[in-house]
Amino acid sequence: MTTADLRAPEKPTVLRRGPSRLRRRESAAAWVLITPFVVLFLLFLVVPIVYSGYLSLFREQLVGGNTFVGLENYTRALTDPSFLSGVARMALFLLIQVPVMLGLSLVFALLLDAGVLYLQKVVRLGIFIPYAVPSVIAALMWGYLYGPDFGPFAQLADKLGTSAPPFLSADWMLFSLMNIVSWEFIGYNMIILYAALRSVPRELFDAAAVDGAGTVRTAWSIKIPAIRPAILLTVIFSVIGSFQLFNEPSILRNLAPNVIGIDYTPNLYAYNLAFINRDSNYAAAIAFILGIVIMVVSYTVQLSAQRKERAAR
Amino acid sequence: MTTIRATAEPVLTGIPRETPPPPRRRRTHSSDQPRRSKLLTIIMIVTLLYFLLPLWWLVVASTKSNADLFTSFGLWFSGTNSLWANIQDVFTTQDGVYLLWLRNSLVYAITSAVGAAFLATMAGYAFAKYRFRGGNLVFSGILGAIMIPTTALTIPTYLLFANAGLTNTPWAVILPSLVSPFGVYLMRVYAADAVDDTLIEAARVDGAGELRIFFTVGLRLLVPGMVTVLLFALVSTWNNYFLPLIMLNSPDLYPLTVGLAQWQALAAGGSGSRALFSTIITGAFISIIPLVIAFLFLQRYWQSGLASGSVKG
């Protein structure tokens, strides 16, 4: 990783025995400092992964208890329409919501960075504030806003003599969810990108300005390439977040149980398998496959970004 | 609106903001005389409505009685102010269980955040300042874990905890929240710059042990980075829904998110529980106040922290 370049340059060793004793002392201190974290890391991250891998190879039977079934749970998952439709729905969600959300975040970040707005601070904070609202509360609130009973959309439409779009219907639900997630996270991503823009050396932009490049040109051909790592970070975090979608659909499910079924998202499905069906072995397999899908997608994003970067040079 | 009031207040009362004024820091470049655009500002203010109107609705709705919710327009106050009655309802419904939820949320979030920040700081410092056998390998492992979807891990973690008899205890929520791989990464990046190697060297010459150096020299310099990690751990635990939902059975142990979701399901489901709407909305409003305030007052920390996390990746 990046350890090597962060270290201070190798100190010329005066005493041969000194440094080696120092090295041993350093090594001991380092392990003392990292051990608490590493122990918890192993217990609550590594062990659950291994355990769910182990569980996923078994099946609980009424007669005979736990039996080893090999990859049966996996073949079952890969042919399970409930699981597959959930993954497909999340892929669709990701393909539409992530570009829209990050596109807006980037535009807002560039506007703030270019200093073309009055009331910069108010704008920045106002867009960010929804991030401080827990996703459960956000979903609950939007659920009421969408609702036909006392939602302002319905009230406004009623005054105008029409009816509001059926936000909680089967056709609209996915977009309604996209809206909630975007509302929560545009500001968060904007701040990441804005912070990255602020740390790009200003001379780079000044040179461009001298060359007569306009604000938009500078943004497109200098600023955006300069913050590529930050953009990549937001893309990957968004990919991970989308596939794991649970809170928002599980809250809206209370309002529209016929639209959001138990298999609406893979996580919702795994939850129902584990706690309603009591089929923890199969739930473990689903969780495992979902984890793999997410890792594969985010590594693909990363690799393709790196390849593009190399090609651009 | 809370946001606007809080940001405008220092201006009105003439109290200087606690954050250093931005112009002196970086705005010494070409946009000293930014070509500010009224048109773009107006467009952004309109955009801001999208982010703030839902919260405005929440504030307005929490001043209404259940009947007024249905009869008055959502985005403006009704004739009578029922805020106080609603607050009383929030804290007395079901024998005042809301207060327990509030306390639980605070306990879980603060314990997890302080623990996570401290563990991440120790480990990050060690990775940044010591070169030791196995260090790179362990750090790569931690870095790789940033990508692991935590929600996919939650069900296996539950199954493990169930075997250990830890479910339905506060530990079930706190322990998994102590592990923040991203926090370690952030603190490593931060420590590399914030703690000067020569300081460590000088302390060694004075005969201080490595751990003493960390606690007396390192920790003090790492405080800003640590606060950032703390803040983000605080948000993620405060907002967590999936983990406590799975781990906890007794309502007395619920955090706010799980409790409010339960009330929402109750109100959506039953005809007799309809009177809960105003209580839920007011409860939701109260629940977002602590974090919004925390974010407003700790701006310096989250902004700089996000910067160091995203730029050097």
Automatic annotation (TrEMBL), chain A:
Topological relation to the membrane, as annotated: Multi-pass membrane protein
PROSITE patterns: ABC_TM1 (PS50928)
GO CC annotation: plasma membrane
Protein name in the entry: ABC transporter permease
Signal sequence, renumbered to the chain: none
Entry-linked Pfam families: BPD_transp_1
The ABC transmembrane type-1 domain, residue ranges: 87-301
Automatic annotation (TrEMBL), chain B:
Keyword Transport carried by entry: yes
Region described as Disordered: spans on this chain: 1-33
TM ranges: 39-59, 106-128, 137-159, 171-191, 211-235, 275-298
Subcellular location(s) of the protein: Cell membrane
PROSITE patterns assigned: ABC_TM1 (PS50928)
GO CC field: plasma membrane
InterPro entries: MetI-like, MetI-like_sf
Membrane topology (UniProt): Multi-pass membrane protein
Keyword Transmembrane helix (UniProt): yes
Pfam families according to UniProt: BPD_transp_1
Domain ABC transmembrane type-1 intervals: 102-298
The entry's keywords: Cell membrane, Membrane, Transmembrane, Transmembrane helix, Transport
Family: Belongs to the binding-protein-dependent transport system permease family.
Name of this chain's protein: ABC transporter permease
Organism: Cellulomonas chitinilytica
Native organism taxonomy: Bacteria, Bacillati, Actinomycetota, Actinomycetes, Micrococcales
